[in-house]
Amino acid sequence: VGAADDQAKDILCSIYSRISQAENEVRVSICCMSPESAEICKLASNCFRTTKISFANMIGDIADKSEGANKYDICDALKCDRSIGPICMTPGYGYGGPCYPRDNKALALYANAVGVAPLIPVATDNYNDIHHDIMTDNQLKLSKEIYEFHDVTYKPNCAVPMIDKSPKLEVACSLAKKGHKVKIIDKLSVIMEVMKEYGDLFE
Fold it and tell me: At 89, is the secondary structure helix, strand, or coil?
């Protein structure tokens, strides 16, 4: 909770306590701070997750190029380390959506504005782009007549048809622009969003 005074803090804590009790049997922690701290904290939370995603994907890409190595075994072991944790440590597609890429850039812009070099969020975004290229190359090695992509929203099993910076669509788009046939298979509402964004690039 970011609150400028005690009255606002107490009201917000009361609201969030009732919400958490209604949705969870276990009471959640509510951290109170200044609005400025809360804004940085919110950005930092998402940026830390993207850093873990890019790191897991980098380790996965290293393992894929190392004979005898298995990226899932490596990342499963890393998840057991309590200082690392299991969340966002499974190699796969990169990150996308309305929040992650935006918040990385927002934290980097603010860091620059206050004179701090935002090396980590910038590197995280850069590797996310590199990983899209690696996944495209891996698909090309399969030499398929048609490349199919299922469940193409920005995150798996998304309840709403949001395709903002979808990592699967980034790879699909790259393949299609290289002249390969790409088929998108998803719910009609998602397909409509894909057509709005990409026109007839895909089947």
Answer: coil
Largest CA distance in the chain: 64
194 pLDDT exceeds 70?
A: yes
Helix (H, G, I), strand (E, B) or coil at 28: coil
Instruction: Round to whole Å and give the CA distance between 46 and 79.
Output: 19
Residue type at 142?
A: L
Q: Which residues pair with 2 in a beta bridge?
A: 33
**CA pair distance 115, 129, nearest whole angstrom:** 26
pTM of the model: 0.91
The tokens for 189 are: 């509402």
CA distance 90 to 78: 10
Q: Please list, in sequence order, all residues whose beta carbon lies within 8 angstroms of the beta carbon of residue 52, skipping any fewer than 6 positions away.
A: 87, 88, 89
Split at pLDDT 50, 70, 90, the class of 16 is confident
Q: Which two tokens stand for residue 125?
A: 């975004």
**Could you tell me if 50 and 124 are in contact, meaning their C-beta atoms sit under 8 angstroms apart?**
yes
Report the C-alpha gap between 169 and 174 in whole angstroms. Answer: 8
